[in-house]
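Progress narrative, work stream C.
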Amino acid sequence: METLTTQVAIIGAGPAGLLLGQLLYKAGIEHIVIEQRSAEYVASRIRAGILEQVSVDLLKQAGVDQHLKERGLPHSGIEILTNGQKHRVDLSALTGGKQVTVYGQTEVTKDLMTAREAAREAAQLTSFYEAENVQVKDFYGAPQVHFEYQGKAIQIHCDFIAGCDGYHGICRASVPADKIKTFEKVYPFGWLGILADVPPVADELIYVQSERGFALCSMRSETRSRYYLQVPLTDRVEDWSDERFWDELKCRLDIESREKLITGVSIEKSIAPLRSFVTEPMRFGKMFLAGDAAHIVPPTGAKGLNLAASDIAYLSSALVEYYIEGSDQGIDQYSEKCLQRVWKAERFSWWMTHLLHRFETETEFEHKIKQAELSYILGSTAGKTTLAENYVGLPYEIQSVSETCA
C-alpha cells in the first residue's frame, strides 16, 4: 500500500471540491483531491446556471473568473408570469444595485479544472480521478482516506477531510448515526429540462405560475437556452419528444412569449426530482461537509451552487486561519455559520417552490390563496424587496484568502 501525507484531503472534484482546492493552493496549503468519477464525466454534468455576486467574487478571489467576465450574462431583474401577465422584479433597484450572473455550473467546473491543471506541475498538485472503494477513517482522531487507484491501494494521512462528494457521497454516509441529524422534504414532482442551441425567449429569466404547472425560461448564453417544465415523477424522459416539450411550454407561456419562442433540437434532456435536505451539524471532528454533501435545495430559488460556494468560503477561510494564524476559531464556528445561511436559503427555495408550482393535493382554496399571495408580493414594494434580497443572495462577511494572509 502506498502512503501519502497532506494537510487537507478533499473528497469530490465537483465545483465545491475544486474551488476549495484552488483557494487552498493560493494560500499555500497542501491538499489532495480524490474523485470517484472520471474528469470527463465531472466536466460534462449539466447543472445550475445562476451565480450570486458573492459566488462571482469568490471565483475572482480564486483567480478563475476570466471566462466568467467574458461570457457571463449579468441580470438585474427577473420576470414572473402569473394569470397570463408578466411582472418584472427589478433586482438591482430593490437591493441597492445587486444583480445575478447567468453562467453555467458546467463552465464553472471546467474553469476550475483548467486552472488546477495549469498549476499542477509547478505546484505539484495531486488529484486522483476514478478512485475506487474510497473510505474515510478516524476523522475524530487522526484522519485517513483509503482508496484504490489503477489497481494500487493508497492511503492518505491528513489533518482534515473536506467532504465535497455530493448527496450520495461516502463522507456523510460514514458518520455514525448518533452523531448526525437530517431534515428532508421530497416534492411530488420533477423538473423536465432541455438544453437547446436557440436564442432565449427573453433577456431575463421568466418564472411561470400556470394552471398547467410551473415552467422556467432560462439561458446559458445568448445563443443557448435552458427551459424547464414541472412534470409528474412518474414521467420518463422517453415520454417527452422535443415537439411535445415545446408544445407544452407554449401552453404555459403568455401570448407575447409564445410568439417569440424559437424552438429547436434538444442537445440534452433530463428529469430532476426536487428535494429539500439539510444535515446538522456540518463538522464531525476533523471532517467537514460542504455543498450537496450537506444540503440540497430545489432549484427554484437558484441557491444550490451558491450555497456550496459560501460553504467553501467559510471552510477555506477557517483552514487558512488554522494554518497561517494558528487559530481554531473558524474551524469551530464553521458548521454554525454555514447552517445559518443554509436554512435561510432552504426557506427561500421552499417558499418559491411552494408558491409557483401546482401540487396534486392542494385544494382550490389553497391554490387561490397562493395566487393572492403572489399578487400581493408583486404589487408591493416590500414584497418584491423581500423576494429580490433573497434571490440575489443574503449578505455574509468573510475575510478573503489574500486578506487573511496579508
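Work stream C, second folded protein:
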Amino acid sequence: MKEIMLPYILIVWLLVKLGVIQWTLRNAVISVGIGAALAFSLFAAHRFWSPADLTDSTTVKAPHAVLSPLVGQQIKEIHVKHNQEVKEGDLIYTLESEDSEEEINSLRASLKATEHRLVSVKEQIAIDRKNYDRLVSLDEFSAEKDRDELHTRIQRGEADLLALQSDADSIRATINQRSWLNDRNEVRAPFDGVVGIVNVAEGSRAGNLFLYDTSKKFVEMRVSDQTYRNLEEGQFAEFFVNSHPGEIFRGRVNSVTTNTGEAEISVRGTAESVQRHVGANMGSHGRTVVIEFEEPEGYTIPLGATGSGWVSASKPHDMLGFMDIIGGGTVRLKALKAYLFAL
C-alpha cells in the first residue's frame, strides 16, 4: 500500500527542489498532513471498495487428482517423470497383478468346460424328448414305466441345465470382476494435465502421485472480512504473479469463501477449549476470493506462483468508480517491484 504514496512524495520533493515551496516547519507539517490524509483515504477506499491483497499471498492453483496405489499393492513400473505433461488415458504407473491373470485364465477354462456341459445336457434333453414323443405315439405298444422314466429324466436334465447356466453366469461375473480389478493395476491419467513430483519408486507399497488439471487453473486471493459484503460473483479482477513480473492478468470473481478452516469444530463432538479457540482466532484471518481466468495464448503460468491481486468491489455510488485506480495502481506497482525480487 505504501507504494501508492510514492508519486505524492516525488511531487513534494520536486516542489521543494525547484523552489516552488520552502521547506519550513509549517510547510512540512502541511505536506505531511496532506500525505497522511491521502494515505488514510486511499487505505479506506482500498479496504472497502477496491480491495487489494497486501499480503502478496495471491496464489495460482488448480484442481488435482491423487493417484495412489492401494495399501498393500506394490508399484511395478512408473511410466512418467517429474513435471511431465500427460494426456487423458496415458499410462502413469502399473501395479503388480497378484496372479490375477492366472486366475482369469483358470476361470475362463472353467467357463468353457461348463459351456460344453451345457451343450451336452441340451442335446441329451432333445434326444430324451424325441424318445418320449415316440413312446407316447405308440400308446398301448409302449410301457407306461418307460414313459415315466423318460419324463423324469427330461425334468432332471432341465434342472441340471438351469444349474449349469447359473454356474456359467457366476463364472462370467467373476471373470468381469477380476478383469476390472486387473485393469485397475494400470493407473492412467483421468484428464489432460501435468504430473507433480514423482515421490514414489518402483516397489513401493504406499505413496501417491498428483495430477494437476492445468485446463482449470484459478487464482485464490486473500481479502479482509470488512470487504466481504461488497464482493459478488462476476466482478472484474486483476492479478500479477512473480513468475511474470510487470505483467497484469485479468479475470472474474468466481466465488467468495463463506467459511474457513477456523470454523471447523472437533469431529469427536467435544467442546472446544477456550485456549485453542482464542489462539486460533486472535489474529485477523479474512477470507479468500476465487478468481477464474483464461491463460493468455503463449503463456504458461506456473502452479503455486504467488503475487497480488485486486477486485473491483461494489461501491455506494457509481461516481466512486474512480477508486478502482487505487487497486489497479497498487497491483501494478507491486508487479513492477517484482523485478527487484529476482535480483
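Residues 144-183 form the longest helix (40 residues). No further action is required on this item.
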